[in-house]
């Protein structure tokens, strides 16, 4: 029954910020997915008899690749696989299953916010026993293994029906198909005051949640509509579609434009939220108040004690380097430890595992805590709902109070998507070469105080990750960051992050782009990005 199939290596199976992402048609190349899955198993340590979790965001190819994972897991000696019914598991739900059932690891099939379908993207992520994304030393080993792979092992059996819950077998290995929502929803009930949120709902509180035709639909229907009693129709685009309805499930004002427009209109409900393709990220919006993810992290950190799961307070906060320093102010005032990591959730794992931090966040709409080892979109929405219920304030009111108490970190990210990769790399290289000469340079009232290529020294395992983004820091705390995305599949995406701190309450109501316009101009002047990238304006402004 077990076949050993001869194969030859592919040379592009290098996982990026979050797993291996390629065009769907690349994953349809014969042996392509099998090679990568075998490389994972070859680097996963002693897997014989162990439990593996598998599921994905429901995109095109999800079920086909799950069948391959099941058959290859059996052939490689796993004792048991837990898979989500229909092949569905959100990324945080997969992380929860790995932790709850002490799995050896998990395979999550997703390219997150990248468009799905035959013409879109597909991805494979590997998570380790703590439930979190494989750290760089593991992804590096997987890449090395993939470069010399000559065979993979697969069981020659019929497909396992994924739509029926219950146990099956492939040879000695048990396959258990589970409800993808149940364990996750149960965990959420332990972390938040569902009764208080239900009371708020019964007093007329209304929300719109946009699942963007991706994986969070089933979770959101169950949690918001069934368990919290919100009206039917609260969740829109709530059925996962193989092509995500042709959309781009990136929860930001550009790609969740319908929700954004509603929340800025007179018809807005009290609160709006959206998730990305695999459910690990979130956008939250108040009535007439877009909430920047960096502000959301800071506000959640300042108010987390209102939720039962954080009743005893939080140990510390970690944020990715490009995320604004709004959370640093909360940490400083409350005597909490604060860590600055490279972009990507894998860098938070050690900090969470060793109890150094409780809350983590990224400017890209990712927030999470120690309850799993992934960022968690619905968790963040529920924490917001819990804080709204416990405080009795509106979302906009909470944000304004936060700015009054801590000052406002004006913050924006400009993305130039799908630009020429050579031009983007050359721009970054040139900037890097000029870093040493930048300190002291003046631009009007702004003076550069420091400039570097961010390197992270992990305080737990002492590993060093270099070239994690170019930082240009100004006296007074303003910053400009340049980074290349590690999740795209076409050309390059340049991300430019700008931040400026404003303590003056009278200046808290400016338009973000206007408040940042001096920094936006400096970013262009320093890098000549528009000329070099041959673009007049960013693809996405957040
Ligand atoms: C982007 C975000 C990063 C996030 C990553 C994966 O990476 O910037 O913050 O962790 O996506 O998120 P990059 O390298 O393109 O900037 V997800 O939701 O796509 O798993
Ligand atoms: Co995601």
UniProtKB/TrEMBL annotation:
Its EC number is 5.4.2.2. Residues 13-150, 183-285, 294-406 form the Alpha-D-phosphohexomutase alpha/beta/alpha domain. Keywords: Isomerase, Magnesium, Metal-binding, Phosphoprotein. Its cofactor is Mg(2+). Residues 1-17 have a biased composition (Polar residues). Residues 1-21 are annotated as: Disordered. GO terms for cellular component: cytosol. InterPro entries: A-D-PHexomutase_a/b/a-I (IPR005844), A-D-PHexomutase_a/b/a-I/II/III (IPR016055), A-D-PHexomutase_a/b/a-II (IPR005845), A-D-PHexomutase_a/b/a-III (IPR005846), A-D-PHexomutase_C_sf (IPR036900), A-D-PHexomutase_CS (IPR016066), Alpha-D-phosphohexomutase_SF (IPR005841), PGM (IPR045244). Belongs to the phosphohexose mutase family. This is phosphoglucomutase (alpha-D-glucose-1,6-bisphosphate-dependent). It comes from Candidatus Tokpelaia hoelldobleri.
